[in-house]
């Protein structure tokens, strides 16, 4: 099973600041990595897939990078609605695993 | 508009059974992998089971093998999860998600399963 480790666990920032979230895989997943945003009481929402491709309707302030085992989600300038939990997920092999999440809080 | 609507959750005693359903609309269901993903209260996400478009390829996470069965009815655009021998650790919100070899691009709102005596 591929283990995804996200850091930091919590990121405390202010609106307008830049957020940098990390995801490290225990094995190479090439670029088969996605990022999701989840707000309380809601289902996750796809932000980024294949490491760097923005999903439909996702604002340009969200960007993804990386390949192999190390990946980054960057939010260039935090909007109030961006405060949420973010998960990475690999689709390289079953089970399709998720990281433990990074909470971005005000 | 793509919609996934789960149903069938509820309170069940340990050792009991439940059948979850996911009704899909707004896309050609029969051409997509589908996956059940669960989230225990206050915890992260876990892929439980998935199935390819024609049902010929199925995967289960080890913790549910032999207890859960995923199925689909392409004529009804529906996905199912039969859950038997339920345990307290199966308590979670269960989401139906489109995808399985690609990203999960659409999710249902989830249905809560609580296993407790």
What secondary-structure arrangement, pairings included, does this model have?
The complex is a heterodimer of chains A (106) and B (117).
Chain A: E1 4-7, E2 10-12, E3 19-25, E4 33-38, E5 45-49, E6 53-54, E7 62-67, E8 70-75, E9 85-90, E10 102-105
Parallel strand pairs in A: 2-10
Antiparallel strand pairs in A: 1-3, 3-8, 4-5, 4-9, 5-6, 7-8, 9-10
Chain B: E1 3-7, E2 10-12, E3 18-25, E4 34-39, E5 45-51, E6 58-60, E7 68-73, E8 78-83, E9 92-98, E10 106-107, E11 111-115
Structure keywords:
heterodimer, A: about 110 residues, mainly beta, four-stranded antiparallel beta sheet, 10 strands, about 45% strand, B: about 120 residues, seven-stranded mixed beta sheet, 11 strands, globular
Beta-strand proportion of chain A: over 45%
How does the major sheet of chain A shape up?
A: 6 strands, mixed
Sheet with most strands of chain B: 7 strands, mixed
Which structural class should the secondary elements of chain B be placed in? mainly beta
Helix content of chain A: under 10%
- Please tally the helical runs of chain A, counting DSSP H or I stretches of 4 or more residues: 0
The overall average pLDDT of chain A, rounded, is 97
Q: Approximately how much helix is present in the residues of chain B? A: under 10%
Low-confidence stretches of chain B are none
> What is the number of E strands of chain A?
10
User: Count of DSSP E strands of chain B?
Assistant: 11
Instruction: Tell me the greatest interface.
Output: A-B, 20 and 21 residues
- Indicate the structural class of chain A: mainly beta
> Low-confidence runs of chain A (pLDDT<50, min 5 residues)?
none
Strand and helix order of chain A: EEEEEEEEEE
Question: What distance lies between the first and last C-alpha atoms of chain B, to the nearest angstrom?
Answer: 40 Å
Shape of chain A: globular
Spatial strand arrangement across the major sheet of chain A: 2-10-9-4-5-6
